[in-house]
Design goal:
The chain is mostly helical and about 240 residues long. Helices cover about 65% and strands about 0% of the residues. The chain contains 13 helices and no strands. It has helices at about 5-10, 15-30, 40-55, 60-70, 70-75, 80-95, 100-125, 130-140, 155-170, 180-185, 185-195, 195-205, 210-215. Helix 7 (about 100-125) packs across helix 9 (about 155-170). The radius of gyration is 19 Å and the shape is globular. The protein starts with 6 loop residues before the first helix and ends in a 26-residue tail after the last helix. The relative contact order is 0.08. Mean pLDDT is about 90; it is low at about 215-239.
């Protein structure tokens, strides 16, 4: 049975919460199976998940649902994780401008959950090169895309603002194999090359986060790292 034929997909956008909750639980079980998904199938699934979130009310219920949806990444077979995340980001980019102010907070929380899920997945792989490259490509081509006018700046701003937060959470053990320079490359590229000054400024502010200077006990190695020059002519982050 393809994912489009699964009865719980339509139930994700049901009016009543018990039906939606049951559909989410069924989906979690379905996704944990050893199946290969086409990107079109995942986009259709994410349309249902988007409206599942849309229909959710009350802050605690919304946060619980966002956490449950982000936890879907944990049950996916490794080969399905990056395509699933790509479908999530494409859906957020497509639907973002249609989210009204009363619903925005829960989607901001959902995006935070998925960025955290991305970094947690990379941490589980031991920050493996293939997984890191694939997922940074997704982030760079969708929410942190430099020039695509279809990507809302509101989504860009939010991902920039929470990027270091969620990376920090994923590396609380402070492992010595974290490829910090590579992980910050999407922000660095936005800070240098975005055609929008406010986006460049936001990215350079994120790169100037004090937590990056103290990520490890780098000692003299900091002096070997090039300084990003911000739009105001001052010095930005050492990363």
């Amino acid at each position: 049975m393809s994912i489009q034929q699964a009865p719980f997909v339509k139930q994700l956008a049901a009016n009543d919460r018990p039906t939606r909750d049951k559909a989410v639980a069924s989906l979690r079980t379905y996704l944990s199976g050893n199946r290969k998904f086409e990107q079109l199938d995942l986009l259709k699934l994410w349309k249902g998940l988007f409206f599942c979130m849309w229909m959710s009310d009350r802050p605690r219920t919304q946060q619980r649902l966002a956490i449950d949806l982000a936890a879907m990444v944990d049950v996916l077979p490794d080969e399905n994780i990056t395509p699933f995340l790509e479908a999530f980001w494409n859906t957020m980019a497509r639907e973002w401008n249609g989210i009204d102010i009363l619903r925005m907070d829960k989607f901001l929380f959902l995006v935070r959950g998925y960025l955290n899920a991305t970094f947690n997945y990379l941490a589980r792989t031991g920050w493996g090169t293939t997984a890191v490259e694939q997922n940074l490509d997704v982030l760079s081509s969708i929410p942190l895309n430099l020039t695509d006018q279809k990507i809302p700046n509101g989504l860009r701003y939010h991902v920039i603002d929470i990027y270091v937060d969620e990376l920090d959470k994923a590396d609380t053990p402070r492992t010595d194999n974290l490829p910090l320079q590579r992980l910050l490359e999407p922000l660095r590229r936005v800070g240098n090359d975005s055609p929008t000054k406010s986006v460049r400024t936001r990215a350079n502010d994120a790169l100037a986060d004090a937590r990056l200077r103290n990520w490890f006990d780098l000692g003299d190695s900091l002096s070997q790292v090039s300084i990003v020059k911000g739009d105001n002519g001052g010095q930005g982050s050492p990363f």
